[in-house]
Specification:
Layout (H helix, E strand, L loop, with lengths): L25 H4 L39 H4 L6 H9 L12 H25 L8 H15 L3 H4 L4 H24 L71 H5 L17 H6 L2
């Protein structure tokens, strides 16, 4: 896998999961608890019973129906194949049991670095951020260098410290994208991380709002205007987005959309696709 360049316009496609080049790491390394998102408990480091010998999921096409919708809303941002093919040079955990635990410990670190790279590359692609493109490129290069460290050194990375540095640039990006809307006198301010669980927001004008970390679990956002909003870390589990307009919003991932409900009238950023369960629900 070639190194991601800060000037590569196709960088985001390399920051998406490619399960064919991964050793099923997310199906082994990560724990989950029985809930509405998972059908049973699983400890970290234990292979999911649905993981096959070829590292494919035996119920991949029926995850939601089988009680594993949490899997459909997970995104490793390409960390799985990076750990499998670059960090460990194609040596898998089944044939090399001595490195298994270390691989599983490395995955969440790589996943966080790749997630940050995803956001940084999105920020770099925006016309509004021209004034900070140099800073963004330097941070992308620094982040990518961290992903290429040896396992021993990667385990020593201070992720919170690096995330704080990245977050400063993402906050600047957010302000630059939303500046014209923020300047409007009657724009309603919405506090960061606000709880909208189950909220009735049908047709709401949230245009240009800072919705970082907002909890929209089971909220009604039908026909709502979320254009040019900052949606980094927003929780859209079971959120009704039918007819909602999310064009121009920033830091929205496919995993967030996969966790929501919507239809063909939901307007998404061009980098995202309508999830299969949206289409199936309205056939």
């Amino acid at each position: 896998m070639s190194r991601i360049s800060a000037t590569d316009g196709n960088a985001l496609k390399y920051l998406s999961a490619n399960c064919e080049d991964c050793f099923g790491l997310c199906c082994v390394a990560l724990p989950f608890a029985k809930s509405a998102d998972f059908a049973f408990d699983k400890d970290g480091g234990t292979p999911c019973p649905n993981l096959q010998s070829d590292y494919r999921c035996g119920i991949h096409n029926n995850l939601r129906q089988k009680g594993f919708r949490g899997c459909t809303a997970f995104e490793c941002f390409g960390a799985g194949q990076k750990v499998s093919q670059v960090t460990y040079k194609g040596n898998d955990w089944r044939d090399n049991t001595s490195i298994a635990k270390e691989m599983f410990d490395i995955l969440p670190i790589m996943q966080q670095l790749h997630e940050m790279l995803w956001y940084l590359n999105e920020a770099l692609s925006l016309e509004a951020t021209k004034s900070i493109h140099g800073d963004l490129m330097r941070c992308i290069d620094e982040s990518e260098q961290l992903t290429e460290l040896s396992p021993e050194l990667m385990l020593k990375i201070n992720i919170p410290e690096h995330r704080a540095k990245v977050n400063q640039l993402l906050l600047q990006t957010s302000e630059l994208v939303r500046v014209n809307i923020l300047a409007k006198k009657n724009q309603k301010k919405i506090s960061r991380g606000r709880d909208f669980i189950g909220a009735k927001l049908k047709g709401a004008n949230l245009r240009g709002a800072n919705l970082r970390g907002a909890l929209f679990i089971a909220a009604d956002l039908r026909d709502a205007d979320l254009t040019l909003t900052d949606l980094i870390g927003a929780d859209f589990r079971d959120t009704d987005l039918r007819g909602a307009n999310l064009t121009g919003c920033i830091f929205l991932t496919q995993a967030q959309i996969n966790a929501a409900l919507g239809d063909s009238n939901t307007k998404l950023p061009t980098s995202l696709i309508i999830p299969a369960h949206w289409r199936e629900k309205h056939k």
